[in-house]
């Protein structure tokens, strides 16, 4: 199970630009390194990160082996309506993790 941290406002005014931050603790192993026993460490990366707000995609990224461990993303969107913000990560094997944050627009 991955540890996820989200920083997002609980409320915003209609039309306000809000900052969203998302971090997932994940080793992001490239598959190019050797372990202490000299054997290659298996590749283990997150390949996709996407964020939807009120059912619409507001951010997405395709990740490659060069990304750092425990990737963190900071981005902005405009508050338009009250609804869920869903943060979703998918790894190379199709396993997914997600976190939902509810935003209330006043």
TrEMBL record:
<protein>
    <submittedName>
        <fullName>Thiosulfate oxidation carrier complex protein SoxZ</fullName>
    </submittedName>
</protein>
<dbReference type="InterPro" id="IPR014880">
    <property type="entry name" value="SoxZ_dom"/>
</dbReference>
<dbReference type="InterPro" id="IPR014756">
    <property type="entry name" value="Ig_E-set"/>
</dbReference>
<dbReference type="Pfam" id="PF08770">
    <property type="entry name" value="SoxZ"/>
</dbReference>
<feature type="domain" description="Sulphur oxidation protein SoxZ">
    <location>
        <begin position="9"/>
        <end position="100"/>
    </location>
</feature>
<dbReference type="InterPro" id="IPR013783">
    <property type="entry name" value="Ig-like_fold"/>
</dbReference>
<dbReference type="InterPro" id="IPR030995">
    <property type="entry name" value="SoxZ"/>
</dbReference>
């Amino acid at each position: 199970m991955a540890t996820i941290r989200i920083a997002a406002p609980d409320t915003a005014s209609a039309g306000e630009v809000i900052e969203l931050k998302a971090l997932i603790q994940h080793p992001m192993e490239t598959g190019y390194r050797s372990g202490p026993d000299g054997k290659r460490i298996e590749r283990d990366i997150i390949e996709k990160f996407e964020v939807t707000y009120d059912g619409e995609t507001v951010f997405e990224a395709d990740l490659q082996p060069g990304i750092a461990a425990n990737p963190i993303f900071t981005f902005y969107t405009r508050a338009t309506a009250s609804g869920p913000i869903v943060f979703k990560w998918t790894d190379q094997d199709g396993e997914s993790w997600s976190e939902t944050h509810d935003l209330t627009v006043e």
